[in-house]
Amino acid sequence: MCGIAGYVGSLEAASVLLVALERLKYRGYDSAGIAVLDEDDELVVEKSEGRLTELQARVDGQAVRGCCGIAHTRWATHGGPTTENAHPHGDSDERIAVVHNGIIENHEQLRKELLADGCIFRSQTDSEVIPHLLAGSGKEDMLDAVISILPRLEGAYAFGVVSELFTDRIVAVRQGSPLLLGRGDGHVMLASDIPALLPHAHEVCMLDDGQIVDIQGSEIQLYNSEGEKIEAVFKAIEVTAEAVSKGDYDSFMAKEIAEQPEIFSRLLESRVTGGRLDVGDFGVDLSKINHVVFLACGTSWHAALLGKRFLEQLARIHVEVDISSEYRYRNPVASGDTLVIPISQSGETADTLAGLRLARSMFMPVVSLVNVMDSTIARESDGIMPLMAGPEIGVASTKAYTTQVLALYLFAMQMARAKGRLDLSVEQKMLAEISHLPELTASTLVDAEESVVDAMELFSAAQATVFLGRGGEHATAMEGALKLKEIAYVHAMGYPAGEFKHGPIALVTEALPVVCMVPQDHMYEKMLSNLEEVRARAGRIISVGFKGDNKLRSLSDFCFPVAQSPIPELQPLLSILPLQRYAYHVARRRGCDVDQPRNLAKSVTVE
Ligand code: F6R
Questions:
Q1: N or C, which terminus of the chain has less Cβ within 10 Å?
Q2: Which of 373, 374, 397, 602 to mutate to test the pocket of ligand 1 (most atoms within 8 A of CB)?
Q3: Edge to edge, what strands does the sheet with 367-370 contain?
Q4: What distance in Å separates the CA atoms of residue 520 and residue 575, rounded to the nearest whole number?
Q5: Whose CA is nearest to atom 8 of ligand 1?
Q6: Total Cβ atoms within 10 A of residue 248
Q7: How confident is the model at residue 604 (pLDDT cuts 50, 70, 90)?
């Protein structure tokens, strides 16, 4: 996790870098820091624990001047979230400053050696070994110093270095953690992610593992891991500054929830050509695939649970859903007719990436479902299904989740067609039905709002909430519970409704809100029985069911109305919408920061 940035150009580096950090803070936000080379080539370092606003206040007060600098926003791994542990870190003489994203796994051993050599450590971080190694490298040139220490570092990292000995110069390396190079008119930038390059860079170059970049003024030179010069290949940045701003919304989460109807329209438009589905050619013959393994974490794992149902139902193939951090440490069985599908919004999740690499090492084809197209997962896959949900910045995933669900359904249709299980007329009928989803999403968001707010008024102080669902709605229950946990800090669990009586029902009291997912499908009566069981024990019911289901309404304390999906399997895509809004309102009422929940980061690039 953590975000790093660098700038060399004609503007005040501090102001450019603070904007970059604002765009990177989704990667971690427990402390932040900046180092700028001033006009006399002296390093001015400012750091602060707490939110970025703390650093902004310090920098404003200090008038940090200079056109070359590096910056960092932190998600603590080694050492608490204190000012001392905030980056940049320096060598003993404080003439070198380093920002680092990743983990130096052999830092303890290195620290021991460096301490024995008389180095002065000022933090508990693993990262601080880097400036000390550089200072002790015996190399006069900064690039030589960086190249010389790389063999000593174990782990995953991206880091950037500035030194008082070199005017307008940054050297940076990528090994396992993302690092991008941007350029615009008179500006060169480095960052962990594209939004942080805006608005000054118009073109981006993605560094590969092992690559080193030496920026001197406006000159850029890229090197491979052997230290040989290579050409930096740039392409235009397509993301706009508008797409990464909140616009008129109070939070990114609110904006991203509202964007869902438009995103679905865009996805459908791009995947349907001449009335036929076309999710792309991944270089894999789907007709030969008899087994699919999904790899994902968190919310993406919930989407994978639905993907399994879609593929089993439509293509009748065997599907496994693995949590990436479990898969990577098992000894999974490989077979030639297995397709591995990692699902990741960020495309950088360390465990999912490791699972992907394990699958590829066993020669299984890998087709990823990713939102960030230039991410490591996208680049290391045999094929990609792009989500096209646009940048998701709120830490709680909302629009990426529902778009994953829709994309997985389209993929399952394509797989069914390849398997000879979907004829043209059925496909066209299904596509016509699916085309109504954007408008149904928009109307559900409007219709459910009032009852969501009413329920929030009553239950925002509840200590815990249980979510129950069956079939695909079990995934919705887990996703609804995760949203409430992560942004409102309410203990919540999503449970298969049929299992509730086997233990968790003991939790029910009049203080426990129980959210029941009750669409009118073949499980309707069974869900009503669950609801009655909770009512009989004085539990409080929030139901999520079809608009106009008066029976359900009469049995519930609150009913969140949702539109009926023309494709029943896609009902979870609509059912989750009021639960996203519920978590958002409860969090706000409890005074929580919905975009930056405590202890979390958007991109989980460490194990
Ligand atoms: C929850 C959330 C996380 C992510 C998980 C995987 O709202 O955002 O649970 O879903 O960290 O992230 P990606 O999809 O980027 O691999």
A1: C
A2: 397
A3: 318-323, 291-296, 338-344, 367-370, 383-386
A4: 12
A5: 397
A6: 7
A7: confident
Tell me the fold of 246-435: Rossmann fold (3.40.50)
The tokens describing 169, both together, are: 């110069």
Q: Which helix (H) or strand (E) holds 528?
A: helix 524-536
SS3 185: coil
Ligand 1 nearest-atom number relative to CA 395: 8
Q: Is 2 a catalytic residue?
A: yes
CATH top-level class of 443-594: alpha beta
| Chain segment 497-536, per-residue pLDDT in tens | 999 999 999 999 999 999 999 999 999 999 999 999 999 9
Which 8-state DSSP code applies to residue 140?
S
Query: Residues 557-585: what's their mean pLDDT?
Result: 98
Bridge-based pairing state of the strands 513-518 and 540-546:
parallel
**CA gap 74, 601 in Å, rounded:** 9
Most distant pair of Cα atoms in the chain: their distance: 79
Ligand 1 site, CB within 6 A? 297-300, 344-346, 349, 352, 396-397, 482, 486, 604
Question: Of 25, 308, 485, 602, which is the active-site residue?
Answer: 602
CATH 3.60.20.10: which residues of the chain? Answer: 3-244
Q: What's the CA-to-centroid distance between 187 and ligand 1, angstroms?
A: 33
- In 3-state terms, what secondary structure has residue 119? coil
Mutate to test the pocket of ligand 1, among 27, 349, 398, 401 (most ligand atoms within 8 A of CB): 349
Residue located nearest, by CA, to atom 11 of ligand 1 = 298
Chain-centre distance for alpha carbon 193: 12
Pick the CATH number of 3-244 from 3.40.50.800, 3.60.20.10, 3.30.2310.20, 3.10.20.30: 3.60.20.10
CA pair distance 491, 462, nearest whole angstrom: 9
The pTM score is 0.87
Question: Out of 2, 205, 297, 592, which one is annotated catalytic?
Answer: 2
